[in-house]
Amino acid sequence: MIFTNSIRSFVGIMTKRQLLLLSSSRVHGHEYLEFAQDDICDLLNLNKVSTILFIPYALKDHDAYVKTVEKPFKKWGFEVIGIHTTNPLEAVNKAEAIFIGGGNTFRLLKTLYDLNLVKAIRKRVTEQGIPYIGASAGTNVATVSINTTNDMPIVYPPSFKALELVPFNINPHYVDPDLNSTHKGETREERIMQYHEEDESYTVLGLREGSLLSVEGNVAILKGVTGARLFVKDKEPEEFKVGSNLSHLLKGN
């Protein structure tokens, strides 16, 4: 009975999460975050958010990064506060919503660990239900681990384990093999399959440019302007179109 109750408690906590996990913030033919404008504004307005806490740690110049992010959000009617301008832990604990942008995933995760923000963000999102928006590296750290990032390890976080807002991994900026290319290096698909050769590996959702995953509680829907490719260990990759229900991924491996 104790075990059953603990499972129910865990499921109850996770039903509070509200996530938008973008493959990227920039898409050809669109301004910064423009392709996801409707989904972002709907999420924030539904939660009566007026101020967004932006975490710019994936890039070195935090102030310049905030200026880039402020432009679309200001146009949409939201204020942006850079976490680096205040006490980071207090800012997370008071945040109405969190946005983590792209850049280097290793630098981002290391800084989150250095500032003791991993558990704090996880609690605010999964237990208290504040909206979380991630783009590229911000999407990578929302998953189980950053093992499937495309970035170079320019710094070393104490662990590859990330925020664990969802029980699988994502490969943002997923690129399909170019059959006409003369490049002989490994394709993205081959690299993901190499990851799956390891014992401790997770399902990987390859999000193409312009795709995003919307998660509300235990429901996950693929949105955006392009589809995604799903990699499950020991199975053939599977294609999913925009509008697909991917809620089964929230059950984990």
Automatic annotation (TrEMBL):
Catalytic activity, as annotated: Dipeptidase E catalyzes the hydrolysis of dipeptides Asp-|-Xaa. It does not act on peptides with N-terminal Glu, Asn or Gln, nor does it cleave isoaspartyl peptides
Gene Ontology MF annotations: dipeptidase activity; serine-type peptidase activity
GO cellular component, one term: cytoplasm
Keyword Lipid biosynthesis: no
UniProt-annotated location(s): Cytoplasm
Entry's EC annotation: 3.4.13.21
Pfam families named in the record: Peptidase_S51
UniProtKB keywords: Cytoplasm, Dipeptidase, Hydrolase, Protease, Serine protease
Alphabetized CDD domains for the sequence: GAT1_Peptidase_E
GO biological process per UniProt: proteolysis
Free-text function comment from the UniProt entry: Hydrolyzes dipeptides containing N-terminal aspartate residues.
Record family assignment: Belongs to the peptidase S51 family.
Name listed for the protein in its UniProt record: dipeptidase E
Source organism: Psylliodes chrysocephalus
